[in-house]
Design a protein that fits this description.
The complex is a heterodimer of chains A (236) and B (202). By secondary structure, chain A is of the alpha/beta class. Chain A has two domains: 104 residues, Beta Barrel (Elongation Factor Tu (Ef-tu), domain 3); 115 residues, Rossmann fold (3-Layer(aba) Sandwich), CATH 3.40.50.80. In chain A, 19% of the residues lie in helices and 33% in strands. Chain A is built from five helices and eleven strands, in the order E-E-E-E-E-H-E-E-H-E-H-E-H-E-H-E. Chain A has a six-stranded antiparallel beta sheet with strand order 4-3-6-1-2-5, with helices on one face. The relative contact order of chain A is 0.16. Chain B has 202 residues and is mainly beta. Chain B is 8% helix and 31% strand. Chain B contains three helices and eleven strands. In chain B, a hairpin with a 5-residue loop joins strand 2 and strand 3. Chain B is globular, with a radius of gyration of 17 Å. Classes of the chains: A alpha/beta (236), B mainly beta (202). At the A-B interface, strand 3, strand 4, helix 1, strand 6 and helix 5 of A face helix 3 of B.
Chain lengths: 236, 202
């Protein structure tokens, strides 16, 4: 799927029900939600979640999907940000059975076609779209098409750690030493072998992470126009 | 739609009449949102071209652009991801000054803004004329940072900020509208924050 092949698709607001809610760590929550008659999605796409107050004030934020299209539910993994009016609500207030306003899927650029050999260089909750891509790859029987280099502070703070290890992802801990790997960001020596045969790189994480990841990819010879980036700031 | 159980407004509305629907005041922050690798563009090699349906296709270098009359925008900006930022100041040159030199033809009705990265965004010509759009190289009196589109970005502050293309290099005048990068990828063709024109279908 090239950018020139995709037609704009209109989405409208609908509602989704929380089916499961899990506080994975004190600052992260995993939600699985049901949406009636939902549109199909590519891995990498996101949904809008909108909250409505009694005075009709609304707050909406974008959250990447962790689930692939074959999953009967939509899965989100949200970091609870200090003073984040939506993420705090999802972590602290929302309960199973609650209905939220939703719209999606959104974004047709940071998507993977499950055909192009790709690498995800992702950090923190930026790991979420790589999870959707890995699930889509497994579902298609082509896990060989996707490589993941996931970056987290420590094993306890790495989202989807078990699933990443099962997929065969390479993991770099920035503040935790493992066997012969000292704590620290990923290096060119770790990244370069993963790029063999790779035609597209997906970077997802904080703005700071994305800047470092882009520089590392280009240092390893990845052309700038083969890198797609999704970055997020602390927007609550 | 029904009220969300347990959700109440905690944020202030911001200055009276200045926060479009569905937006919040990001305060001193300025989130960076970019779809591509952030390029290194040197001022010495940067140029901007106005071409397409104009009488005099024109290219300005950094020095030539700086010899045009300086213009400053002070006001608010609004991102489709729902943050707004109040009382920002950008300095550069009005798009009107560039168009005056290039001479738009009568059939020109739309503009495609091009960045050196290949990013594009489409705008009606009337949204970049009449003192509504700038090509800017300063933010808050300092050189515009690379991650915010420096050395030079487009500024169309009355529309959602994806229309204010970073690393601007070309304004192409067209007779008919064509979708740009995000517009092909599901975003609205015009992007008026006061009408909440965020995505296709709004």
């Amino acid at each position: 799927m090239s950018i020139d092949d995709v037609a704009p698709t209109a989405t409208t607001w609908t509602s989704g029900r929380i089916i499961t809610k899990e506080l994975v760590t004190p600052t992260t929550v995993r939600l699985r939600m049901h949406v009636d008659d939902r549109l199909r999605h590519w891995p990498g796409q996101h949904y809008l979640l909108r909250l409505r107050a009694p005075d009709d004030y609304t707050a909406q934020r974008s959250y990447s999907l962790a689930s692939d299209d074959s999953d009967p539910l939509l899965e989100f993994f949200v970091e609870r940000l200090p003073d984040g009016e939506v993420s705090e609500f999802l972590a602290d207030v929302a309960e199973v059975g609650d209905v939220l306003e939703m719209r999606g899927p959104i974004g047709r650029w940071f998507t993977w076609d499950v055909r192009t050999p790709a690498l995800c260089l992702v950090g923190g909750t930026g790991i979420v779209p790589a999870i959707a891509m890995s699930r889509a790859a497994r579902h298609a029987g082509r896990p060989d098409l996707l490589r993941i280099l996931a970056v987290g502070r420590s094993p306890e703070e790495l989202p989807y750690g078990d699933e990443l290890h099962r997929f065969g992802a390479t993991v770099a801990y920035t503040r935790h030493a493992v066997d012969d790997r000292p704590a620290g960001p990923p290096t060119a020596a770790e990244l370069a072998p993963l790029l063999d045969g790779i035609q597209r790189a997906y970077v997802c994480g904080s703005s700071r992470f994305a800047g470092l990841a882009e520089a590392l990819l280009m240092e390893c010879g990845m052309p700038a126009d083969s890198i797609r980036v999704e970055q997020f700031g602390a927007t609550g | 739609m029904p009220v969300t159980r347990g959700f109440v407004r905690r944020r202030a509305d911001g200055p009276e009449g200045r926060l479009p629907p569905g937006q919040y005041d990001t305060g001193s922050g300025w989130p960076v949102l970019t779809a591509e690798a952030t390029p290194h563009v040197a001022p010495e090699t940067w140029t901007i071209t106005v071409d397409g349906l104009v009488d005099r296709p024109t290219t300005w270098s950094w020095d030539e652009a700086h010899q045009l009359p300086t213009s400053t925008y002070t006001g608010d900006i609004h991102c489709v991801t729902t943050w707004s930022k109040f009382d920002v100041a950008f300095t550069g040159v009005s798009v009107d000054a560039l168009l005056e030199a290039a001479g738009p033809r009568s059939e020109a009705a739309f503009v495609m803004a091009h960045s050196s990265t290949g990013y594009t965004t489409n705008l009606p010509l009337r949204d970049v004329t009449g003192g509504k759009a700038w090509v800017v190289w300063e933010y808050g009196g300092k050189p515009l940072a690379r991650e915010h589109g420096g050395p030079v970005r487009l500024l169309v502050p009355h529309l959602y900020f994806w229309k204010s293309a970073k690393w601007i290099s070309r304004l192409e005048l067209m007779a008919h509208d064509q979708p740009g990068f995000w517009e092909r990828n599901g975003y609205h063709d015009r992007g008026d924050p006061w009408l909440e024109q965020r995505y296709q279908g709004d």
